[in-house]
């Protein structure tokens, strides 16, 4: 196989896809219904739509992970049929998933070349090819660097390089900017423009309408499993896109009047966390949240925010003291912390938030089994749990065939809505929200923002961790920046821009 990264700069542009009449059914749901899309070769094509609209299913079909029940796919006019991603790669389709799949303890070269040794081996030829691709598209990657030393933006470039190395001329990206700060988004878009200029076709899913208008040549809107329209990024507005997607106006996280009191709810004093190799994951964290206050934490992914949350939740043990409403909770386990009224929206919903192979109503009980409505004299009250799950499904607009459906069968955004609904239930006093709107559509985002604002009005304290800087600025009363496990700055959301925050988050460098 020739590497299609070597596609001639001025040769015929290839990589067009025609999707016709694609239908994919799951039990109780038609995920894709008679989908037609034309993806022009050499363009950046955005796919947008509300949660559960069928975007991921369509991408998985194009990448050979799912098989359609009906319909055809043609690449450059030739009908294709995929049984696995290997078949998709053979015709030049590669996909970069939202969760990176790199081995931290291996080099860039090893991550890229392992599993594809038959192309360029694992030695100098592979190294040369990586350098060639990296130079051609301005990736700036060193093949011998260990992946654990790379920032999030660089890791993403390794993933893209990996698919280019395998000959992809059509690259599918699933919400590629969700974890990036503004400066990294700019760098990614420069890379994508370079790729487009050399004849690659890019297909990506995003919920961020600004970015779509910035980068896309074509936009397809999906709703309830089918394509409902195209939009022209040259003339469309964000508002029109939001209306096409969710049928309502664009929300914005507007600041509301302060409800901050001087009652301290959560207090961290000199909290340190050190890993097995003696490195500080958290260094001397002093942090206070008052009743009625939203404290925002800004940071590039991997700078200690996950460890901070896990330490507050008792999932990791550091040094220093943690107090909840004047009660020392440093020695409490996770369950005791939850029972004391901490709601927890975890960053990794698959690892900490859900039992994927259990029905929604059991997921409602998860972590809340010792409290109402689940607990009845030490036993699980199934009827009450089910009724409350039904309430969450309605209040939070979780799109599901039923409360008996397994969590795995929900779209990513709908899984998130279920977790947010569960964690906001049961009268929490403190809410730890890590990326609460990640992967949710603009309509659901507005609802979750409303729920957080209401929590604040009711006197809860909220620790909000988010990579969406507009969200942090719009919802927080104060924003602290975390870098390499340390709080390195505090900003007033009233007079800080996403660019200022992005800069503080990367220690003043433009790209991480
Ligand atoms: N493996 C599966 N089993 C059952 N149902 C599924 C499965 N995968 C997806 N679905 C259902 O198909 C529909 C479309 O889901 P899909 O993940 O494609 O939506 P999406 O547009 O990508 O949503 P999101 O923006 O929330 O990621 C949803 O109703 C979902 O519940």
Question: How is the secondary structure organized here?
Answer:
Elements (H helix, E strand, L loop, with lengths): L16 E10 L2 E11 L4 E6 L5 H8 L7 E6 L2 E3 L4 H6 L2 E4 L11 H6 L3 H4 L3 H13 L15 H14 L4 E5 L7 H16 L3 E5 L3 H7 L2 E6 L2 E6 L6 H9 L17 E11 L5 E11 L3 E5 L6 H8 L6 E6 L2 E2 L5 H6 L2 E4 L3 H5 L6 H6 L9 E2 L2 E2 L1 H14 L16 H13 L5 E5 L7 H16 L3 E5 L3 H7 L2 E6 L2 E6 L6 H8 L7
Parallel strand pairs: 3-8, 3-9, 6-7, 7-8, 13-20, 13-21, 16-19, 19-20
Antiparallel strand pairs: 1-2, 1-4, 4-5, 9-10, 11-12, 11-14, 14-15, 17-18, 21-22
Helix pairs in contact: 14-15, 15-16
The structure holds adenosine-5'-triphosphate (ATP).
The site of adenosine-5'-triphosphate (ATP) has 20 residues, from strand 2, helix 1 and helix 15.
Write a brief structural summary.
32% of the residues lie in helices and 25% in strands. By secondary structure, it is α/β, with parallel strands linked by helices.
Describe this structure in words.
This protein has 512 residues and is of the alpha/beta class. The chain folds into three domains: 17-246, P-loop containing nucleotide triphosphate hydrolases (Rossmann fold, 3-Layer(aba) Sandwich), CATH 3.40.50; 265-341 and 427-506, Rossmann fold (3-Layer(aba) Sandwich); 353-425, no CATH class. It has 18 helices and 22 strands. The strands form five sheets. The protein has a six-stranded mixed beta sheet with strand order 6-7-8-3-9-10, with helices on both faces. A six-stranded mixed beta sheet has the order 16-19-20-13-21-22, sandwiched between helices. β7 (170-174), α7 (182-197) and β8 form a beta-alpha-beta unit. α15 (412-424) runs parallel beside α16. The longest helix is centred in the middle third of the chain and has 16 residues, at 182-197. The protein is globular and about 65 Å long. The two termini are 34 Å apart. Adenosine-5'-triphosphate is lined by residues 26, 29, 31, 49, 51-57, 399, 409-414, 439, 441. One of its GO terms (molecular function) is ATP hydrolysis activity.
């Amino acid at each position: 196989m020739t590497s299609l990264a070597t596609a001639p700069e001025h040769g015929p542009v290839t990589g067009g896809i025609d999707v016709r009449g694609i239908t994919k059914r799951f039990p109780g749901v038609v995920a894709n219904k008679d989908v037609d899309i034309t993806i022009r070769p050499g363009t950046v094509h955005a796919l947008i739509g509300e949660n559960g609209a069928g975007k991921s299913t369509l991408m998985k079909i194009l990448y050979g992970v799912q098989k359609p029940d009906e319909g055809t796919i043609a690449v450059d006019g030739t009908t294709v049929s995929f049984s696995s991603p290997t078949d998709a790669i053979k015709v030049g389709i590669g996909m970069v998933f939202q969760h990176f799949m790199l081995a931290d303890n291996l080099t860039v070269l090893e991550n890229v070349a392992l599993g594809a040794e038959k192309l360029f081996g694992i030695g100098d030829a592979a190294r040369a090819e990586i350098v060639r691709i990296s130079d051609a598209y301005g990736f700036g990657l060193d093949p011998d660097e260990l992946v654990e030393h790379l920032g999030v933006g660089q890791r993403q470039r390794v993933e893209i390089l990996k698919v280019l190395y395998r000959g992809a001329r059509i690259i599918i990206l699933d919400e590629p900017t969700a974890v990036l700060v503004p400066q990294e988004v700019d760098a990614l878009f420069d890379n994508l423009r370079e790729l487009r200029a050399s004849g690659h076709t890019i297909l990506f899913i995003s919920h961020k309408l600004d970015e779509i208008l910035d980068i896309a040549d074509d936009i397809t809107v999906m709703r309830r499993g089918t394509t409902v329209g195209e939009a022209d990024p040259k003339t469309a507005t964000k508002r029109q896109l939001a209306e096409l997607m969710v049928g309502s106006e664009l929300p914005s996280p507007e600041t509301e009047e302060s409800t901050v009191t001087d009652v301290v709810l959560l207090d961290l004093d000199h909290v340190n966390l050190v890993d097995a190799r003696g490195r500080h994951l958290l260094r001397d964290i002093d942090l206070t949240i008052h009743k009625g206050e939203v404290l925002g934490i800004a940071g590039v992914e991997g700078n200690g925010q996950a460890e901070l949350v896990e330490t507050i939740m008792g999932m990791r043990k550091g040094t220093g003291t943690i107090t909840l409403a004047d009660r020392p909770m440093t020695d409490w386990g996770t369950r005791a912390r939850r029972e004391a009224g901490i709601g927890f929206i975890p960053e990794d919903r698959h690892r900490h938030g859900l039992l994927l192979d259990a029905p929604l109503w059991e997921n409602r009980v998860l972590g809340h089994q010792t409290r109402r409505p689940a607990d009845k004299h030490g036993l699980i009250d199934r009827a009450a749990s089910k009724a409350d799950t039904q309430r969450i499904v309605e209040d939070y607009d979780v799109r599901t065939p039923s409360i008996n459906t397994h969590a795995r069968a929900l779209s990513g955004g709908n899984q998130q809505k279920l977790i947010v609904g569960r964690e906001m239930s049961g009268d929490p006093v403190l809410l730890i929200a890590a990326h609460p709107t990640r992967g949710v559509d603009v309509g659901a985002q507005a609802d979750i923002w409303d729920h957080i604002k209401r929590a604040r009005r009711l006197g809860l304290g909220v620790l909000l961790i988010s990579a969406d800087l507009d969200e942090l600025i719009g919802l927080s009363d104060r924003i602290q920046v975390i870098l390499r496990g340390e709080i390195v700055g505090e900003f007033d959301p009233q007079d800080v821009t996403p660019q200022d925050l992005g800069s503080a988050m990367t220690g003043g460098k433009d790209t991480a």
